[in-house]
Amino acid sequence: MSLLDINDCDGDDFHPSSFNIDIVFVHGLREAGLDAWKDVHTGSLWMTSIFPHARHKARTLVYEYDVNRMVTPGGPAATGIYDEAVSLANVLVANRELQNAERRPIIFFCHELGGLIVKRALAFSHSRKHAKLTHIRSIYRSTVAVMFMATPHQGLRKDAIIRWNHDKKRDPSQFELSLLEGSDTIQEVTDHFTPIMKDFQLYNFWEQKKTDFEQTSAYIVERNSAAPSWPDVDQCGINATHSAMVKFSSTKSPGYTLVLGSIEKYIRSAPQTVRIRWEQDSALLNSERAFDIGGLLEASVAGKTLITAAEPDRWKSEPNISTIPNNTSTSENVYYHVGLHSDYFVGRESQAELLLHAFKPTEDTGSEKPKVFVVYGLPGSGKTQFSLRYLEDHQRHYWGVFWIDCSTKETAESGFGRLGQLAGKGNERGAGIAWLAQTYKPWFVVLDNANDPQMTLSEFIPSTGNGNILITTRNPGARLYNTVGYLEFRGLNPEDAITLLLRLAYPDKELQDTKQLYSIGAKSIVSELGYLALAVKHAAFTIRSRMRPLEFYLKSLLTCRTTLLSRPIVESAADANIIATWELPFGEISSHRSTDYRDAVDLIHIFAFLHFATIPCAILSLCSDGIKSSTGLAACPSFLIDPVAKYQVEERILVAARVLYNHSIISIHDVDAGTCNTALLSGKYFTLHPAIHEWARGRLRKCDQLKWLCCTAAILEHAISSNMEPSGRMFRRLLLPHIESCRSLLKSAYPNLPETAEQASQLEKFGLVYSEAGHWETARILQKQVLAYRLRTLKQYHPLTIQAGRNLAHTYWNLFEIEHCLNLLNDIRKSQVIYRPSFFDYFVWPPLKPCYFEYYLTLDDLHKSLWLSGERDLSLTVGLRATNGLKELLGPEDPVTVNAMFNLARTFLHLGRYEESFELLEHVIKVRKRFWGPEHPDTLMARNELGMNLYAQGKDLLKAEQLVHSVLQSRNRILGAEHAYTLWSVNDLSKIWTQLERYDGAIQILEEILPIVARTLGQHHIGMVMTRSNLSRAYIRSGRLEKAKKEIIYIREQVPQNHPDSIYADYGWAYLLFHHDKNPELAVKCCYEALDRGLESLLLRPEHGTIASLTTLLLQIYEFQGHEDANESLRLKFPQLKGSRDPESIDFNLLQPPRSTNPPAAVEQESLPPVNHQPLQEEQPRLNRAPRTW
């Protein structure tokens, strides 16, 4: 670099002390030295020929730097701007000191890249605050104005770099790529300059004429980059090309008047501006130094060292990696659920020490909140590998180490769900987070690939617990989540990058030998790769495989990178570097014609549309038969079609995967048998780096992307069994992130999804998997789309439409949207009455009573839904019809018949027909045990109902307790402590304990699950209403009436007046009015209002337990008041009260969502008369019962 004094060159007779201002010119990247400013025709410099420098006593300085060194491959790519900025500041300081002109005002006039160098130089000067460096700070203090001539403040466009280098017959260098729009290099310059830009007068100029290239013309720097919308900054265009805008041949040249006028204005204001800045800045520095000295003295007295996340430079000397905290050195690692392992890793020692120090525990670990550290940076910079190596080094110091993929909200929820299962609390996200929050043994969680800026990471950070959380992300905004610090990852240290390349490329040779032989070539390669760990690693594998020897690799890399720049997927230098290192080996793979290499190409096309992690090999082998029968697929791999047997498909897949693995494109791991214990898994799964995953999809043309997306969706569809066997449940859970990835891409590609029958079939399968996993909201969206498509194309009577409707009704049922469920099922039933599968199905009597299998299935669904809605009488009629019909068609032991029998048994139980319910439940349990075992979820459900049957009868409460308690233990172990069915068993057990007068136990288990129910279901969910209803009952029985009152108020607010459970809520309120508030008159009024509403609206039968409880309470109140006449009248109207015990109806606390007071019209009209069935006798629905008034 050099600083040329133009005044000396022209022989001007000026003494150094006579100058009033220094004007410093800094050229751009396209033209160097004085050529950047000379007129192309005359060769004259406008700064001396037409600019009145003598009049203004202006010293003209031209800073020149080595452009060729910067643009040559292997040059100072990562530090080019900073290096030149430091040189400019130091050279300018030295020059001015020699003339004793430290306080002379400065105006910078800079072209293109020169503007970025000046911005960084001013920021560098401003950062020198130490007393020994004040001379460097003098550049910042003395600068008045900066004139930016087509400076790419926001970076250069790709096409400008491509065209310029094409004209020069060369490939773009890493330094030029670092100037792309949105690059980290541009952002770094901006970040450093923004805080001080208000201290200077700035003027942005842009070019208004395009530069001619061989076949086209274009702007080198676009206006939006040359003149950003900065506040209070002058800006104007110059009607000249990029080069000519700084070469003025005369005073009439475009832009000269603007430039001259601005310079003269700055010269006039310079003396006062600089004097004030020197005074104010000196005072500010003196104040800061005094504060720092006081702080250091205070810290010294306290015996502590201050460390802040905002000052990372001060951390590096603090931690000692050999000093392990005492309270973690004895920790025993029980859980290490990471699933990944670090590859060969070098460097980042100082960052590892920093992280260790940040996570150093305090003395009082029991009350701490988790510590959060954020590592952010470029893709491929080694964030994940750094985290893995840290965990492997410090695993022994943590009780539990867990890895959560946070690439999407769904994968994050699934990851914490697996933690919940590990803890035995169920597979809900909140279960895993709650487990960590309540664990005070030291734990460590990595939230990896949390790149989505729309994702709220605080949802996945436990509020308490003795834990450390490390977030890895590309999103700089995620720094906000840190509590103990953050790090930015870019490239490796140059020496570490060279070591990584040579050790991986030549693993059999000594490092010292390879450095002697290849260090020069390796240095150029890692520099062009931006020192990115992932790119260096892939380059090493390519060199090691001898596809590209080291001495030829750089040329191949540059050529490939130039080609890639035209692709939309390449947006930055990091993209170009990383993708080029994959394109080179992938080009070798795609050029081979052997079967295994062709299969490898097809395999990566499929992986591109799945989630990048944990791709089971079984996805591909299971779908083979279904894919062969598929029609309309524009792309389909031959390894799914050609083989005859499933094992042959799997063999070809593993061979193809090995090709990709050998070229370092994917990794292959064994399935963890502890978490994936299912026969459907082959023992292998595949994983791609997220950046490779993006490349694999982005390298395809749009039309090819659609082809392979449709193929991948078909593969997922056929990997899901239509029967949804329980044995495949774990495998289907593994498919969820892949289904989500494929579904989101389908939504983007097809706005009106589904648009074809094939897509409808795929969404139907996806909906079943979401439904099975408990993602009801997502399942409902998909199932509504499928039903709408089939209603539009196939009409309502088609079997596929009916199946789609039943699936949606099932989801409505689980969401407790009972009105929607009943209406939909009734529409399906009406369609099935009119449109029947065969001609012979119409020849039945009576003719409006179909007797075919699908119709009975719909009736059974309707039966279950009517039961949940509180229509127990109508539910019984429909249930008998469905059960009898299925038994005739399939027999009493078919699983479908057994399901219908269970539903009927539950209806009998809630209608008080205990013996019939008991008989059916015994049969159901016997068959389910034989088919599925004693601990299958369906068997457990029947066993739980049998226990509640005994409870309702009041015959054998100890046996009921034994049954329900054993089911609770099994559900706790199999489903998890926070699963909805487990919580249901807790509620049922509380009822039994309350009846056994074990009030403290009942209250304790209900109070323990209250926060779980609130977290997993919500404050207004039916499960919360049921839990608080049972709690109120236990409070009342134990005499804790004040607590019971709070719960009863909540229940009355939540349960609508037209629902049967509102009658129980009114009973509880009347009980409290009499026993707690001592207000018998109001209690009597409440009882009669409840009786009127319950009996007149047909909400409850007269013999129902809650009606009996209300009338019994009335008797107590009348006896207390001495109203014998009213007492006798009440006994006459309810003769069943004589000698009765306090009834324990099973319906006492079963709370369902609100229903309409009128049953579905079509069901009421049909009235469903009985069919011939020996063991079960149907009863007619009691819909026209005369209302009673009181």
TrEMBL record:
GO-annotated cellular components: endoplasmic reticulum; membrane; mitochondrion
Cell location: Endoplasmic reticulum; Membrane; Mitochondrion
Positions of the UniProt region annotated as Disordered: 1143-1190
Family annotation (Pfam families): TPR_10 (PF13374), TPR_12 (PF13424)
Signal sequence, renumbered to the chain: none
Keywords carried by this UniProt record: Endoplasmic reticulum, Membrane, Mitochondrion
InterPro entries recorded: AB_hydrolase_fold, P-loop_NTPase, SERAC1, TPR-like_helical_dom_sf
Protein's name in the database: Uncharacterized protein
Originating organism: [Torrubiella] hemipterigena
